[in-house]
Amino acid sequence: MPGNSDAYQKLGYFSETVAADRKRKEYDIKNHSIVRTGRRPDFLFIGDSITQYWELTAYFDEPGQLLINRGIEGDTTTYLNKRFFVDALQLNPRYCIMGIGVNDTIDLEGDYWKLIPPRPYNEVLCNAQTNIKEIIRKAKDSSTTLILASLLPICIKVSLHEADRKRFIHDLNQWLEETAKKEDLIFLDYYSAASYPGTDRLLDGITYDGLHPNANGYSLMSSVLKNTLKQHHILI
Which value, in Å, is the radius of gyration of the alpha carbons in the chain? Predict the structure, then answer.
């Protein structure tokens, strides 16, 4: 019989914790309310914690508009793709503003304590692109207009792979902008507005922790959103 240590080494981990599950009950109840009352959201924001923490009514006050927030802290492109119909398309919003991808970069870190090595860079990037392509396809088959948002610059000094994560953000943003042009979608360039010109360096004073926007950061993002949509004769 193998010793306990051998058995432990062979056991491994049974499952993964999925961030999207944290809000499932809340969003199911809220989604049911919207569907049951027949209200059509004007704008639905979907993404990760950067979306979830956005106090939308503090920045947008067009009369009569219904704004819905379906951000989930820790969400990734993989699980946003899985929940896109439930949390977005079934609510039939006129416009869906999507910001997702920064948490995909966690795979570039690996997990020291679980002895999980970093995933290959191209694999992580390709996975994110594939998920977003699928989301775009789903939106195209609906009456909802999808709007793509860039990732924000980061400053995470405790990260052992910050350079790789910054490279991912740059490459995915470039791909998102090109894809938006190809698919005739609106692209929100938060990145350029939130970084010093010609650099990947985050503007001072706009984040809480080098990743999540503070009030100044959300004010900047709101201005980019309003100005970009106004160019397309859309008010928010």
Answer: 19
